[in-house]
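Session log. Operator J.P. requested a structure for one protein chain; no other inputs attached. Running the standard single-chain path with C-alpha cell output.
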Amino acid sequence: MKSDSPLRAHLEGRGLRHLYCQKEVLDIPRISFQEGKIYALVGPNGSGKTTLMLILSLLLLPTTGRVYYRGMEVTDANRRSLRGKITMLFQDPLLFHTSVRGNVEYGLKIRRIEGMERRRRVSESLSMVGLEGFGERRAQELSSGEAQRVAIARAVAIRPEVLLLDEPTANVDEANVRILEGIIRSLSRDLGTTIVFSTHDRNQAYRVADEIITLMEGSIIPFRPENLFQGKSVKDADGTWFDTGRIKIFLPTREQVRAIHIDPRDILVSLTPFSSSARNCLEGIIESIIANGDWVRLQIQAQETFQVLITQKSLHEMGLNVGMRVYLTFKSSAVQVY
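Structure written below.
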C-alpha cells in the first residue's frame, strides 16, 4: 500500500491549535506524515502528544486548524467515513470481557465481515502479534503486554491505513516491549501501514521510527543536536580548546565559545588510537548498541556521553559489544560552535 504520490502527505495538519479551559495546549503550524513510514512523537507529560493524536485520529476537533487525508480536507461531511481508515489505541487497552477471539473480531462484526473472511482475518491478526493459539483465552487472563498485543490485533484486523499508538509500551515488561517494537516495524513493512506512536523513551524512538518529532509545551521544537556540550573555551600555545569540565576538545576557532556539538556521523570509532591529523582522540566505553536499518547507534561514555553512528559492516568487522573499550577520533572542523 505505497502512495502513488510520494510528495503528497498521507495525513496532514495545518494551523492546529487547541485550548482546554482557555489554556493553549497545542500550537502546530504544520505537520505531515508520509504513507508507510513510522513516526515517533517524543516529549514529556503535558507536551501535547495525546491531544495531537486525538486530533489526527479525527476523534477531537481542534479549536482552530484543519486536517487533511490524502490531500482531502476533513469536514463534517466526510469525517465519519475517513475515521474508518484511522485507528487509535490508547495507553491502557480496553478489552471486552470475552475471549481473545471475541475481542479481535469485534470490529469485523460491526463492519459485517462474516464467515471465512472473518476467521481468516482474526487468525492473520493474531499471527502478526505473535499470539497464535490464544484465540480461546479469556482477555482478563492476559498480561499487560499480551493485552496490548490483542488490542493491536483487533485494530489490524480491520486494516486501518493509519495506526496511532499512545504510549504503547508504557506499562509492559521489557520482553513485551521488544515484541511490541517488532510488531510496529512489521506492520509498516508488511502492510504499508502509516504508524504514529508516542513515547518518553528517545532510545525507543531511534530503534523503531523512521522520523522523530519532538513536542514541548504543545509545539514542535527543533531536534536538540546530539553531542551537545556546554562549557568554555580556553587558549594555550597550541590553539583553542573547549573545556566541559570533564574533557577538552580542540576547536576550529580562537573565538570565545559557550557550547559545541559534534555530529554522530563525524566521529570515527576504533579499537586502538587512530593515527591521523585529527586533534581530538578520546578513550571511552560502549554503553549501548542500537541497530536502525543499515546504521548502528553507539552510546559511548568518554567522561562525557557521546552518540556515534557507524555502519552495520563496521560493527561486525570490529566485533563491538557493550562494555568494550574504544577510541573516538574527530577533526576540529567537525566541531560546531555556538
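Operator note: The chain is about 25% helix and 35% strand.
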